[in-house]
Each structure stands twice: as C-alpha cells, then as structure tokens.
Amino acid sequence: METDFVPFDWHRILLGEQPPAYLLEVAIKCVLVFCLLLLVMRLMGKRGQNNLSPMQQMLLIALGSSAGDVLLYPSVALSYAALILVGITLLTVGLETLGQRFKRVGDATESRPTLLVADGVIDHDALRRERTTLRELHAELRVGGARSLSQVRYAVLEMTGEFSVFLNDIEPEDEDLLDDIVSEE
Fold first, then answer.
1. Pairing status of strand 121-122 against strand 152-157
2. What is the pLDDT along the chain (185 residues), one digit of tens a residue?
C-alpha cells in the first residue's frame, strides 16, 4: 500500500499543504473572526465575562470550535463560522431570557444552587449528585474560613461551580476540617 505521505516533511509540518498565499488568507480570517468574537462578547453582556453559567460554558465550546475550524480548514467559509457564532450566541441569550421569565425553562436549561451543608451536617446525597468529593468540600469550607464543620451554618454549591460558605458565631471545640492537614505532635 503506497501513499503520498512523507514523514518529517518540514514544509508540510510548518506551512501546511496549501499554497503559501493561504497563510495570508488565514491572517485575514483571524482578524475577521476576532471581530466576530468581539461582537459575541458584546451580545453576551458583562455577566458573560465573569463566572460562567453552564449555558455560557456550552456557548464557549461551540464558539471555540467554529472559530477554530474556520481558521484551520480552507474549505470552511467565514460565513459558516459567522452564522454559527452569532446564531448560537443569540440562541443562548434567548434561552437565558426565557429562563428568567419562565421558571420551567430556567430549570430545564440552567442548574440551581445546591445546599451541601446545613448547620454543620453534610448532605452526602447532594454531594454525590453534584459529583463533589468530601475532600473538595472540606477544602472549600477551609477557604471560606471554617476550621470545623460545627462552624458551618450553610455551604452552597452555586450554579457557577463556586462555593458560598456561611459561618455561624460558634467557637469550635475541635478543628476537624484541619485533621487531614495538621498532624498533632
């Protein structure tokens, strides 16, 4: 079986199999895709530039794929990427707007915050549903300033994946959140 493939062909590796002028086309596509992405960021609004919701994470995956494809493959037209970039952004913004107006749509498209700890008691079922380990929870509680579970009034896993930790005023009798880290001498 013979092929036209030549291993370690440095011209192919560095410049590709397209004519050298294609590099100029890629450069122009880069500028145009960058402008499209700026438009998309404006459509997403300021909230899209901070902690991302699951819908916005999905949007970014689609954007990265369509932007990358148009830059890498000569057969993918810029109009295809533009339609995908703007179309998926408008669908995402539209679904988020519908989700704000109609609870059922919001529940179907967005996750909800999950209470993981209430009054020092861990909800292990919620922990399992959210695929979060006890070690991760303990780390987040420590970051929130807790030394003991008895200090934690509430710990909430937010829809962005961040933790909110609310402490009570009780001085802990032990430091069970530090047991795995600090060895007593």
1. unpaired
2. 677 888 888 888 887 788 888 888 888 988 888 888 878 777 766 554 456 666 777 778 888 888 888 888 888 888 888 888 888 888 888 888 898 899 888 877 777 889 999 999 999 999 999 999 999 999 999 999 999 999 999 999 988 788 999 999 988 888 888 887 876 54
Q: Using DSSP bridges, classify how beta strands 152-157 and 163-167 pair: parallel, antiparallel or unpaired.
A: antiparallel
Query: What CA–CA distance (Å, rounded) separates 76 from 144?
Result: 48
C-alpha 89/C-alpha 62 separation (Å) is 9
Centre a 10 Å sphere on the Cβ of residue 68 and count the other Cβ atoms it contains.
Answer: 13
Q: Half-sphere exposure of 124 toward its Cβ, with a 13 Å CA cutoff?
A: 0
Helix 54-72 × helix 22-44 angle, to 10°: 160
**With a threshold of 0.85, does the pTM exceed it?**
no
**Cα separation of 30 and 24, whole Å?**
10
- Residue 59, judged by CB atoms within 10 A of its CB (0-12, 13-18, 19+), counts as buried
